[in-house]
Amino acid sequence: MTTPTTGCRNTPVLRERGQREVFCGLTGIIWLHRKMQDAFFLVVGSRTCAHLLQSAAGVMIFAEPRFGTAILEEKDLAGMADAHAELDREVARLLARRPDIRQLFLVGSCPSEVIKLDLSKAAERLSAEHAPHVRVLNYSGSGIETTFTEGEDACLAAMVPALAATEARELLLVGALPDVVEDQALDLLARLGIGPVRCLPARRADDAPAIGPNTVFALTQPFLGATHDALTRHGARPIEAPFPFGAEGTTLWLKAVAAEFGIAPERVDEVTAAPRARAEKAIAAAAQTLRGKRIFFMPDSQLEIPLARFLTRECGMEAVEIGTPWLHGPIHGPELDLIAQGPVISEGQDVDLQLDRVRAARPDLTVCGLGLANPLEAEGLATKWAIELVFTPVHFYEQAGDLAALFARPLRRRAALSGLAPHLEAAE
């Protein structure tokens, strides 16, 4: 597929700062605790935080997950108790019961930030106390002025200063992927002769990568702005590329990485011919439903720009507006270069104004958060939950068809329900 003569990199951005509809950053723990097998995420927050995590994770009562909540009671919030002393006791009790924990994350929440509980100092103190067996780090998962994927970004950025230094020439893959997807990526890179390859986050603490001036890194998630900047400050160099969503995006991502290691694009085409053909065939099946349909992205996950590129270029959709919580030039620039001019590019949100634009445009499909989906469906607009795109494996060739199908499914469902409507009316 050809690059558009004029992409959207220089399109004026509509920046909105008003009422926002976002999910809490604590939800990142749900996929991070599955990825890091010897880590534990201790949220310092309220009972509401605990209920959110339990509901989002669907944890069975007989399972022992790798996350929990240190509950801030009324006396803590009122300053009547020494919250640091209580936190130290909770951590000591946890580590005594769970000797398998090698990394402990103290995760800030809205309540802990409101009372100005200094969890960074607590992490330093506890890390020194429990070293060398356990490293204690801190990041914020607060939902105040953030979107839910920023939880992972904050977590990975917090890990960067603790990484060892190296002079080795290595590739670092950055972003939490399901193990099966990460294995596919590593296999493709190995077949191209690229290595050694490290991952952040690593599955176990002992496999944590080292970084230095000869480290190059490739993001696999488009919401890792703080992690990108932290790695750059510590001497690593980013590889700018579109993200590995769809057949085209995956190929361009691999070619950018291969070019860094002196591997010709023709070699990438040769190695990836079979999986790319499978991906294109799977995408084509869903594209029959998607082609010619208009889509509107409300800002939610920060996946919006690469997904719009995938849907417009590989599935034949038309983007009306592409909204994203934050637009990071070095990260999103290669994607915007590939999106033909036409859609509104917006950053941030004023939800009432954006809903007015949705209603005026009446797109065939609106990608939005959970809180907006049902009201829009009641108004006759088909929607796609943005959060599902984060929880579902969608990267690289083998998942490309599944990614396209996620967008085709609500349109097929609406078409099926429309077909049933005359029969239901006749039955009445």
Automatic annotation (TrEMBL):
One of its GO terms (biological process) is light-independent bacteriochlorophyll biosynthetic process. [4Fe-4S] cluster binds at residues 24, 49, 110. Binds 1 [4Fe-4S] cluster per heterodimer. The cluster is bound at the heterodimer interface by residues from both subunits. It is an enzyme of class 1 (oxidoreductase). It catalyses: chlorophyllide a + oxidized 2[4Fe-4S]-[ferredoxin] + 2 ADP + 2 phosphate = protochlorophyllide a + reduced 2[4Fe-4S]-[ferredoxin] + 2 ATP + 2 H2O. GO terms for molecular function: 4 iron, 4 sulfur cluster binding; ATP binding; metal ion binding; oxidoreductase activity, acting on iron-sulfur proteins as donors; oxidoreductase activity, acting on the CH-CH group of donors, iron-sulfur protein as acceptor. Its EC number is 1.3.7.7. Belongs to the BchN/ChlN family. Protochlorophyllide reductase is composed of three subunits; BchL, BchN and BchB. Forms a heterotetramer of two BchB and two BchN subunits. Component of the dark-operative protochlorophyllide reductase (DPOR) that uses Mg-ATP and reduced ferredoxin to reduce ring D of protochlorophyllide (Pchlide) to form chlorophyllide a (Chlide). This reaction is light-independent. The NB-protein (BchN-BchB) is the catalytic component of the complex. PANTHER family: LIGHT-INDEPENDENT PROTOCHLOROPHYLLIDE REDUCTASE SUBUNIT N (PTHR39429:SF3). NCBIfam families: DPOR_bchN (TIGR01279), PRK02842.1 (NF002768). This is Light-independent protochlorophyllide reductase subunit N. It comes from Rhabdonatronobacter sediminivivens. The lineage of its organism: Bacteria, Pseudomonadati, Pseudomonadota, Alphaproteobacteria, Rhodobacterales. The gene is bchN.
